[in-house]
Amino acid sequence: MIQMMANKIKKPIIRLRNVTKIYKVGVERIYALNGVNLELWENEYAAIMGPSGSGKSTMMNVIGCLDRPTSGYYELDEQDTTEMGDAALARVRNERIGFVFQSFELLGRLNALKNVEMPLIYSRDGWWARRKRAKAVLERVGLADRMKHKPNQLSGGEKQRVAIARALVCNPSILLADEPTGNLDSKTSEAIMALFDQLHREGQSIIIVTHEESVAVHVRRIIRMKDGQIHSDLPREQDPAFKTTPHQLPVNAGYRNELNSNNSVGSIGAGQNDAQEEQA
Question: What value, to the nearest 5°, has the Cα angle with vertex 51 and ends 50 and 56?
Answer without folding.
Answer: 50
